[in-house]
Predict the structure.
Amino acid sequence: MTAAAIGRRTFGHKLLQTLNCTVQPVTSSLKTQPKPRPQKHRHVHTRAGDYLPTSLVGWTESQQSVREAISKICSQYGDEYWMEKDTHHSFPWEFYKDIAKNGWLGICLPEEYGGANLGLAEAAVMLQTVAESGACMNGASSIHMNIFGLAPVAKFGTAEQRKRWLVPLIQGQERACFGVTEPNTGLDTLKLQSSAVKKGGKYILSGQKIWISTAQIAEKILILVRTTPLDQVKKASHGLSLFYTDLDRSAVQVIEIPKMGRCAVDSNALFFDGWEVPAEDLIGEEGDGFKMIMHGMNAERVLVGSEALGIGYAALRRACNYVNERVVFGNPIGKYQGIQHPLAECWMQLESARLTLNVAANLFDQGYQDGDYANAGKFLAAEAAFKTADRAVMSLGGMGYAKEYHVERYLREATLSRIAPISAEMIKNYIGQKVLGLPRSY
Ligand SMILES: Cc1cc2nc3c(=O)[nH]c(=O)nc-3n(C[C@H](O)[C@H](O)[C@H](O)COP(=O)(O)OP(=O)(O)OC[C@H]3O[C@@H](n4cnc5c(N)ncnc54)[C@H](O)[C@@H]3O)c2cc1C
């Protein structure tokens, strides 16, 4: 089923039917992977070792429909596919094109430009499912920017801009990257140093960005730069402007950064000096860029949290299946509490994070703008995913360290969600100040 069909079914009147297709296992090559049970509908108490159960507590029918449709696509791209892409640092074009062909790149974008107009709750399920299939961040990051990254364009762009930019993005003809982080300022975004100066019908951009995902393959960039110097604005959040423009490689030097994981999707440093950007590529009013970026921040937290969750569940599946079958000292090692109890804790922590993220996504879809649940969900999911991936490696013993069983890749990829787009420390700062009312420490 395509994204548009689910969008129509959800927002037209009501879901016409419940889906009852059986999902194929993604890892037929894995010896320890049991065959899926022959039931058509899976229950809420599906075992953690099962592949992508359709029905999880708290999900609406429309979320379940998304889960089932995305599972079908993902089942064609097993762990071996992702390991190969990760090892050779090659972008997963086949997967990306498949997602685009079925209309999923516009899951949250307006129908008039080819999107499905579904909510954050559905997008969260989509990205959790992609990651949970074994694709992890390699799969999720290959499409992530399309899912919610262009929310500022959809909300603040003119009708002409939306048509010009959203249509090719949703069709998978153009790819976008997102340029906020800078080497000299890091998480202190308001101090970013890249600038844009207006000259006639153009802005001249100079500066640098770091860690920009997919800049090797993107045609477009959504970039935040300062148009009024910091010492000339009343508030530090003023004077930043947002552009969506061609990533002009004759003006921007793009240098890939070798890194620990998520190797199928590139990360880059960008250097530019005298880069001419047409004034019609400015989004909204000059100086309002930070406000527009903030609009999508809570959604971003929910989506990255959901991707982390997917990795955690994938790791738990691998671990449970392995420890059920691996016999040492005459018993399956899953019988030993030293192995079983930590995995039980992982499930509880993953599931708590999933429920929190689901609340955050639904609140967002209802117009709630505070970041308490989105931040909490992202933090809980990232920590739970990392812990689970680590437990999976330890549960598999030596085989946990072998590429063949994939959990070492999961562990490398789970690390990323603790760092980006916001670190655990900054989330705790937010909760400390905004929820607990404690003084700011920085
Ligand atoms: C693989 C990858 C992909 C990325 N993709 C993108 C992208 O596409 N676009 C983009 O713009 N950015 C991207 N990022 C950047 C990412 O969002 C940042 O790395 C992240 O926000 C952290 O910023 P930083 O690395 O500058 O850390 P720093 O700001 O240098 O912080 C370093 C450490 O200090 C801690 N710290 C800093 N200030 C405080 C404080 N006040 N209190 C407590 N602790 C503090 C942080 O929590 C962190 O642990 C990506 C990063 C990675 C690793």
Remarks:
- The two ends are 49 Å apart (CA to CA).
- Residues 11-42 have pLDDT under 50 and may be disordered.
- The chain has three domains: 61-171, 176-290, 291-435.
